[in-house]
Amino acid sequence: MIRIATRNSALAKAQAGQVAALLGGGELVEVSSDGEVGDKARFVRGVERALLDGEAEIGVHSAKDLPAEMAEGLVIAAVPVREDPADVWIGSGGSLDDVAEGARVGTASLRRRAQLLAARPDLEGTELHGNVDTRLRKLGEEELDGIVLAAAGLKRLGREGEVSFAIPAAVMTPAAGQGALVLQTRADDAGATAAAAAIGDETALRELTAERTVVALLDATCATPIGVHAQVDDTQLTIDAFVGLPDGSEWIRDRVEGAAEEPTAAGALLAERLLSAGAREILDRAEDWTASA
Question: Which residues have a Cβ under 8 Å from the Cβ of 284 and sit 6 or more positions away?
Fold first, then answer.
């Protein structure tokens, strides 16, 4: 039976369980990110070690956690059908316009904070960390008016009933890879790579490739206030991007269209346009803002 490496959080195990079902069965190998330091990349290191040490054949990651540069000897073998990439609001209100003036909003994401404040400068952003269950619990405990989470994670945990409304992508561009899973294998393991590829989705792979290209060329990290969202429609690929300061005072939005079979080229074009518009300066200032916060 094929062994599937996964983090030991409830969401990660739910995602790995879905992959096992698609594969027709599999043994989950749970790894921990406890004791790891750094940004979201720590979430993938334990899984990657399990693959490199031969403890598992396939690793499952949330695509938005996977750094642009992976550990040597590992490859992206497949991306299954993508779940809804939207960000959603949980709390009072039926739309962002309905949310009360000065409402306290919990989020740990600079990308979400930047776009919320760009749309509604009156809102008060509050740091909110922890897994999905922890954040949902803190909504009431910390007297927050709302929190913003990924629709995909809530659906995979069977908690989609908590959602008050989805935030339109035109207002909040999702994180690169949001809603997508990455199946990672050792480059020299042809059997596992073939097994993973058999449950892959070409549309999801093309979208993720375009998004990761933009992030890589902007030299962005998981903590950078940047959103990138690609959509494939038949033979056309459209990519939207947002780059902004965490306080929502300054931002850039752009969109490009390209051929679906050339996602890297489309992503490169969008990155070039963003850089020409001053994205590098904004990202550098965002990093300074984060360091001094």
Answer: none
Q: If we measure between CA atoms, which residue out of 129, 28, 32, 111 comes closest to residue 64?
A: 111
In the numeric block, which tokens belong to residue 35? 């004791």
CA 285, CA 287: separation in Å to the nearest integer?
Answer: 5
Partners of residue 7 on adjacent β-strands: 31
Residues 6+ apart with CB under 8 A from 282: 243, 244, 245, 250, 251, 252
pLDDT recorded at residue 33: 65
Residue 56 contacts by C-beta under 8 Å, 6 or more apart in sequence? 3, 4, 5, 29, 47, 50
Is residue 256 a contact partner of residue 267, using CB atoms and an 8 Å limit? Answer: no
Which pair of tokens denotes residue 177?
Answer: 């890879």
What percent of the chain has pLDDT above 90? 80
Total residue length of the chain = 293
85 vs 95: CA distance, rounded Å:
18
Q: Which of 16, 24, 18 is nearest to 58 (CA)?
A: 16
The amino acid occupying position 71 is A
Threshold 0.90, pTM exceeds: yes
Question: Nearest-5° angle of CA 156, CA 222, CA 55?
Answer: 65
Say how far apart CA 106 and CA 138 lie, in whole Å.
9
The pLDDT tens digits of the residues spanning 238-253 come to 999 999 999 999 999 9
pLDDT band at 139 (very low <50, low <70, confident <90, very high): confident
